Amino acid sequence: MSLTIRGSVRARRQPSCRGIFCRMVCLPRSIIGGFSRVMGRRNQYQPPNLQLQHPQLQQPQAAPEEWAFLASFEQQYGTTHPFFYACSFMQALKIAEDEHKFMFMYLHSPEYPSTSSFCSGNLCSELVVQFLDANFVCWGAFADRGEGLQMAATLLPASFPFCAVIAPATCNNIVVLQQMEGPIDPAELVEILQRTMEEQGSAFGSARGREEEQMRARIKEEERIRARAMEEEKLRADRQLREEQDAAYFAALQIDQEKEKLRNARAQKPEKHLGKSRQASSIREARFKETVGQGKDTQATQILIRFPSGERREHSFCCTDKILSIYIYIDSLGLPGIGNYRLISSFPRRVYGVDQMGITLKDSGLHPRASLFVELL
């Protein structure tokens, strides 16, 4: 029996490969350094629910050894397989951490006799494919080159095919939750993976649960602080609005009071001046009557004059007096607000303006009695 066969038989006889165990492993620097090579380019990977049908579409963005395993596997076993991330080990581990999943790592060694049956019977099985895609982030590599060789040297598998369930740990360490060596049927593989998730996932799940709980508590506290800040801001805004409204009200009230005082002062002032104005107007009117009445024809014409203020004045003119005499009489009154104006008769409506000032009262139809309105211009 060759060394390869003896290693395979020894793997089948090892009961520990089916048991649950947990060990901490420190990653070599060469593996850790691979993380920086693809850091920040996660968008180059397809989502887990898609199968990689054409590796050449993404091959220019990944290192050759990261595509060699996937291209070789699909060429030999087809495209039905778990979604293996074509990236570095550290990047796949980061993806698993972000998605809160364990990593399923497969190291491929074609020279072992059981490798072909494991790939076709397990990794191409619908049962295994669906279970792995739903619960794990899968990463595969050749065991004799690149990062696959480095992981093989770190984990020291006794036989192939070799699978391991890995979780991230602190610093540059990983936790190997389970490892399987040698041939295994699909149902047993799924059972071991399921048991590992249930038994080992509780510890990591509790840690993640605590982190999530702390994050939820922080978010809740931040929301409470924001709500309290918004409420305080609303109270300040309402208080400021009330103060502004009160200030505007008192300012308007003060303005109204000042206006009222001014109106009262003005109302008292015109009464004194109005009495004096009326007295002067009466004196001027009497003088005008005396002046105009001397030497005039005894045939008088009575003219009633209505002003815009509602005031009325009646005066007697001679029928031979001209329209100009009425304007002179109105101007002699010195009434306030009477500046530029013209005389109008109501019925029939007729305007006695500048063109008619030389016509006598008799010729203008105002004799012996007429009523005229003063219309301001």
TrEMBL record:
<feature type="domain" description="UBX">
    <location>
        <begin position="296"/>
        <end position="374"/>
    </location>
</feature>
<dbReference type="InterPro" id="IPR006577">
    <property type="entry name" value="UAS"/>
</dbReference>
<keyword id="KW-0175">Coiled coil</keyword>
<dbReference type="InterPro" id="IPR001012">
    <property type="entry name" value="UBX_dom"/>
</dbReference>
<keyword id="KW-0833">Ubl conjugation pathway</keyword>
<dbReference type="InterPro" id="IPR050730">
    <property type="entry name" value="UBX_domain-protein"/>
</dbReference>
<protein>
    <submittedName>
        <fullName>Plant UBX domain-containing protein 10-like</fullName>
    </submittedName>
</protein>
<dbReference type="Pfam" id="PF00789">
    <property type="entry name" value="UBX"/>
</dbReference>
<dbReference type="GO" id="GO:0043130">
    <property type="term" value="F:ubiquitin binding"/>
</dbReference>
<dbReference type="InterPro" id="IPR036249">
    <property type="entry name" value="Thioredoxin-like_sf"/>
</dbReference>
<dbReference type="InterPro" id="IPR049483">
    <property type="entry name" value="FAF1_2-like_UAS"/>
</dbReference>
<feature type="coiled-coil region">
    <location>
        <begin position="212"/>
        <end position="247"/>
    </location>
</feature>
<dbReference type="GO" id="GO:0005783">
    <property type="term" value="C:endoplasmic reticulum"/>
</dbReference>
<dbReference type="InterPro" id="IPR029071">
    <property type="entry name" value="Ubiquitin-like_domsf"/>
</dbReference>
<dbReference type="Pfam" id="PF21021">
    <property type="entry name" value="FAF1"/>
</dbReference>
<dbReference type="GO" id="GO:0036503">
    <property type="term" value="P:ERAD pathway"/>
</dbReference>
